[in-house]
Amino acid sequence: MVSLATPVPAGFTDRHPTAAFLIRRTARMILLLLVLLVLSFAMIHLVPGDPVRAELGPRAPASAVEQRQAELGLDQPLHEQFADYVSGLFTGDLGISSTSKLPVSEVIAERLPDSARLAGIAFVVIMLLSLTIGMGAAVLTKDGRHSGSELAFTTTTGFFATIPEFVLGVALVYFLGVQLQAFPVAYEPGVAAYVLPVAALSIGPIAALSRIVRVETLEVLNADYMRTARSKRLPARLTYLRHALPNLLTSTLTLGGLLLAGLVGGTVLVENVFAWPGLGTTVVESVVAQDYALAQAVMLLLGATVLVINLVVDLILGLVDPRSTIKEL
């Protein structure tokens, strides 16, 4: 089995464990980015069909098809196409979209903010509600109290945590969009259009993370320093906010960062359910239209975003808990 870890001299690791950890993680991310680059290029070229025929139509003359292939560089060997693609990444030239006739960089710049806002709002909602619900459930069910509430909490969260985002999105569209007509079922300017897609992205992660927060909170509440805090007869609100919450944030933020990486994939499905004009819709449309340049760039951007988020989460965890850097292989 090939290890993705970068070898670091043992002496350097002993003297500078955090720096060695940073080097290993960064090198691993770079290697994975290279793998992602190759896979994104290879997969899009394995899609059946001719993108030039799809662009010009089935009745286009052969001369026009050959000319367009030459313009796009599709008449070159694959290794030369790959070399051109990599050099374009470093120069900022991602090519021209065959569907919109615009530079790929402009298409991405136009679509990226909508995806970023959707994922960002969903992440904030997930973190706030997960902490609130999880801590509230822990306080309510501490020491075996309210067993009925504990059963209702675990059953409800377990159910919603297993529902895929796109299934939940379709259900929200049908009940709240079509039947009740309470919210828009497709993108339109305004805050109301965010409600259903954010709910579709958030409900499952909230259910999963709140279960973890509850377990972590129960452990914190039984810790010695919490008994000491309660012995000072501080108000319960201050005890939880000053002593319990800070000790929950490390693990919760780490898991939240991993969930944020998962939101990148979730937005691809949810955006298509709600006709959201973001990168998720763009990547599907570009693959269907065999728009090579646009599909490759969006797939690479989404994958790189996940890798960068994972790296940031690892580095934050390493700084907060230096012991994890020593255990890293």
Distance between the termini: 14 Å
**Individual helix count:** 14
Quick one: CATH superfamily of the domain at 104-288? MetI-like
The major pleated sheet works out as: none
Give the CATH level 1 class of the domain at 104-288: Mainly Alpha
Secondary structure layout:
Blueprint: H1 10-15, H2 17-46, H3 51-56, H4 62-72, H5 78-91, H6 104-141, H7 147-161, H8 165-179, H9 192-221, H10 224-231, H11 236-273, H12 279-288, H13 292-320, H14 323-327
Please characterize this protein's 3D structure.
The protein has a domain of 185 residues: Orthogonal Bundle (MetI-like fold), CATH 1.10.3720. Helix content is 78%, strand content 0%. The chain contains 14 helices and no strands.
Q: What is this structure, in a nutshell?
A:
This protein has 329 residues and is mainly α.
Labels describing this entry:
329 residues, MetI-like fold, 0% strand, mainly alpha, single chain
